[in-house]
Write a structure and sequence with these properties.
alpha/beta, 22 strands, Rossmann fold, about 850 residues, Pyridoxal_P_attach_site, binds ligand F55, 34 helices, six-stranded parallel sheet
């Protein structure tokens, strides 16, 4: 019988439910979905159609396991974890889901029969870019680990119609293009078109007294938008457990459909609908510098209000009293972005459930936990009071009441420090008043954590020191981690296989098992196999670079990679100054370069961040000059890969020799790229910052190149009066580099083009201490080059980096959160 006929397909589907399907029916399922879900001829489906059908076939399996997981959580009456984040960066789902479901081989076989390879089909997926960078990616690694640990958890976020912009490099400059990721149709999610919550903004608060003489608050007027749930599934690694990432999409409330009958203003009514649906239209592309726009505040409340309704609905099903709420629920705030959840829960409890304030507050502070991800002053979120009052009038009142009671307590605890009140107040008073979201988050949570040991200390000792004195028991550290399923097993299958051959598969769920590789570090045979895998990965990246950028690079050259968001504190500028230094050495003496190098850059700059964009342009200009200079040849290449994203990171991590983690000490809260590189066997060159410091403790200082000022030295130097010019005057190599940039060497058509970059260093204080760290960086780079010449030594270092990354698994991080903060266990 022809297996593509509808009858044959339907018959196959009837024989078994998807979860128990024998593997060889994956092909039948694909063809079934091609015909019935996608409405296409399934005789010769194209690649994109096959991808979508395969995704749908996997979604069938995921949804069954999800239902079963939900039932288990309900049956056990488990305490639930709600992870609220304005950003998730899940990356492509296909391979992850196949790995988690144990269907990789079956999928390959099915696709082969259909005339495709898994690589081709996976290449059709467009990743959901619903985050900016580290914070969003961390949230997704955490969901993966929560699923692996079978935690009763839910991710909650926004389903932006446009994710982080697509970056193009045109004439050396960043150009932004809209990321219309939904255009391809949604194959992983379920849109719950009948499942909506109303979310209310604006309006005014009416105070009144009810029959029992209680003071009541009711919001009147304002406007309502509906939040529609869109569910995406996150499977645990081969454990039949599936979590839900619920993303809200804004839909106009249905009233408009009737209102135009009354007013006759049809077009006006439609315009209102469009305005409403704008709320979830676009992700704000700023990281570490929030944009204080009304729409952004509405997005935050939109997520919070819809999510709180979901949480309360689920809690109510159990029919237990409100005072049990914190025993049954914990709400985790990923940064302050969803912190308006605190006054929202207070509003629900006080205004709607009519609980006394004290009881409501007692519940609140036992429910919320907050993670801080940055100490940059410009990244701390504040909202103009007038804007807050306009959008969320009742919430502002509640914040004022929280603040009044809090300051009252502080005054009693610290009667002799009158200035303290203004410093810890939830309201910044000045010409303009601002709501300080980090103060709200700290006061309203039972746990405040940083994301690396170093960062958590900085929080306690400096930015939140006064809160630490008030609430010492709230502060704790949870060092970030990354999921080994995506960041080794999936992105580097050949290395994963080599590892598994030697130590088995347990490392996939217990990354500390990688320690078992250590004895092989001295084995010449293993070293050889290790380096062969790495070289093949490097060849593949060379092919990609050739195809995308038209640049030929030597796979044997040292791949020195700097990929992450562009920000001055991450110091891509320091890197390019060093590149130019090497270039000058080669120009002076063509044999000077001790080892051929390929510098690879990638990353997006916030569209409004002039200096970050300008540095991208400088890197491209330097790259052009060096790559076309015949004196340089293969000794040095500079590549800028456009549109750095999860998909691209997966290509880059396995092919990197040297990982650049060179932030100004004290400024990178943790970093997670650093962990991804090292897990794949790259060696780090980095500063004493964020999680680099813990990585050093784990891998040992012969296997990681640290350099530069320590955070307290950065501070001391600033206090003493840092003068960057002295470095310019005393370091002739550095001076030559800066003179070339400001003299137009890399911009002959416009010699002034990059002058302002040099100005920022020499005349505007070099806020990020680029010049102060330049020389020690250049020395350390020399150490790295020398180490690379000793290939067996490099192989050993590389293996030991991988072998000692066990601690940096997000399973370890999530285990700590579950035990120490949330008080939950696996289902
Ligand atoms: C995004 C939007 C706003 Cl408004 C503010 C900050 C961000 C953001 O993306 N921050 C961010 O990515 N922070 C990073 O978090 C990582 C995960 O904890 C850290 O590893 C990294 O050091 C930190 O910069």
């Amino acid at each position: 019988m022809d297996s593509t006929t509808p009858e044959a397909l339907a018959g196959m589907r009837e024989t078994a439910s998807p979860a128990t399907l024998p593997a060889d029916t994956l092909k039948a399922d694909i063809l079934w979905h091609v015909l019935y879900s996608l409405g296409r001829d399934n005789e010769r489906p194209d690649r994109q159609t096959v991808f979508r059908a395969l995704a749908l076939a996997l979604r069938d399996r995921l949804v069954e396991k999800w239902i079963a997981s939900q039932r288990a959580i309900y049956a056990k009456s488990s305490k639930r974890v709600y992870y609220l984040s304005l950003e998730f960066l899940p990356g492509p789902f296909l391979r992850q889901n196949l790995i988690a479901l144990g269907l990789e081989k079956e999928a390959r076989d099915a696709l082969t029969e259909l005339g495709f390879t898994l690589d081709d089909v996976a290449g059709e997926e467009w990743e959901p870019g619903l985050g900016n960078g580290g914070l969003g990616r961390l949230a997704s690694c955490y969901l993966d680990s929560m699923a692996a640990l079978r935690l009763p958890a839910y991710g909650y976020g926004i389903r932006y119609a446009f994710g982080i912009f697509h970056q193009l490099i045109r004439d050396g400059q960043q150009v932004e293009r809209a990321d219309n990721w939904l255009r391809g149709g949604q194959h992983w999610e379920f849109e719950r078109t009948h499942y909506m919550h109303p979310v209310r903004f604006y309006g005014s608060v009416r105070e009144w007294v009810d029959e029992q003489g209680r003071l009541r608050h009711t919001l009147e007027g304002g406007s309502t938008v509906m939040a529609m749930a869109c569910d995406m599934f996150i499977p645990g690694y081969r454990n039949d457990y599936v979590l839900n990432m619920r993303l809200w999409a804004a839909k106009s409330s249905r009233e408009f459909e009737f209102s135009f009958f009354n007013t006759g203003d049809y077009i006006g009514a439609v315009e209102k609908k469009i305005r409403d649906e704008n709320i979830s239209m676009v992700l704000y592309p700023n990281d570490e510098a929030p944009e204080g726009k009304e729409l952004r505040l509405k997005q935050q409340f939109f997520l919070v209000s819809a999510t709180m309704q979901d949480i309360v609905r689920r809690f109510r099903k159990k029919g237990v009293a409100w005072d049990q709420f914190p025993r049954k629920n914990v709400i985790h705030l990923n940064e302050t972005h969803p912190a308006v959840a605190i006054p929202e829960l207070m509003r629900l409890l006080v205004d709607e459930e009519l609980l006394p304030w004290e009881e409501a507050w007692y519940i609140c502070v036992r429910t919320f936990a907050y993670t801080n991800h940055t100490v940059l002053p410009e990244a701390l979120e504040v909202w103009p009071e007038e804007l807050f009052r306009k959008v969320l009038p009742r919430h502002l009142q509640i914040i004022y009441e929280i603040n009044r009671r809090f300051l009252h307590d502080v005054r009693r605890q610290f009667p002799h420090d009158p200035g303290l009140l203004a410093r810890v107040s939830l309201i910044h008073e000045g010409e303009q008043r601002f709501v300080r979201m980090s103060h709200l988050a700290i006061v309203g949570s039972f746990s405040v954590n940083g994301v690396s040991a170093h960062h958590s200390n900085i929080i306690k000792e400096s930015i939140f020191n006064e809160f630490y004195k008030i609430f010492p028991e709230r502060f704790n550290n949870k060092t970030n981690g990354i999921t080994p399923r995506r960041w080794l097993r999936q992105c580097n299958p050949t290395l994963a296989w080599l590892i598994t051959e030697h130590i088995g598969t347990e490392w996939l769920t217990d990354l500390e098992q990688l320690k078992k590789l250590e004895p092989y570090a001295e084995s010449a045979g293993f070293q050889k196999a290790w380096m062969e895998v790495r070289l093949r990965n490097k060849q593949k990246l060379a092919e990609y670079i050739h195809a995308k950028n038209g640049i030929t690079i030597l796979p044997e050259s040292l791949y020195d990679v700097h990929v992450k968001r562009f920000h001055e504190y991450k110091r891509q500028l320091l890197n390019i100054l060093h590149v130019i230094t090497l270039y000058n050495r080669i120009r002076r003496d063509p044999d000077a370069g001790i080892v051929p190098r390929t510098f690879i850059f990638g990353g997006k700059a916030a569209p409004g961040y002039y200096m970050a964009k300008h540095i991208i342009q400088l890197i491209n200009a330097v790259g052009y000059t060096i790559n076309t200079d015949p004196r340089v040849g293969d000794m040095l290449k500079v590549v800028f890969l456009q549109n750095y994203c999860v998909t691209l990171a997966e290509r880059i991590m396995p092919a990197t020799d040297l990982s650049e983690q060179i932030s100004t000490a004290g400024m990178e809260a943790s970093g997670t790229g650093n962990m991804k590189f090292a897990l794949n066997g790259a060696i780090t060159i980095g500063t004493h910052d964020g999680a680099n410091i813990e990585m050093l403790e784990h891998v040992g200082d012969e296997n990681l190149f640290l350099f530069g000022l320590l955070s307290h030295e950065v501070e001391d130097l600033r206090r003493q009066g840092y003068n960057p010019r002295t470095f310019y005057e005393t370091d002739s190599e550095l001076r030559e580099v800066l003179d070339m940039i400001s003299g137009g060497y890399f911009s002959p058509g416009d010699p002034h083009m990059f002058r302002d970059i040099v100005e920022s260093l020499l005349n505007h204080g070099d806020r990020y201490m680029v010049l102060a760290d330049f020389r020690s960086y250049a020395y350390r780079q020399q150490d790295a080059a020398r180490a690379y010449l000793d290939q067996p030594g490099w192989a050993r270092r590389s293996m030991l980096n991988t072998a000692r990354m066990g601690f940096f698994s997000s399973d370890r991080s999530m285990g700590e959160y579950a035990r120490d903060i949330w008080g939950v266990e696996g289902v």
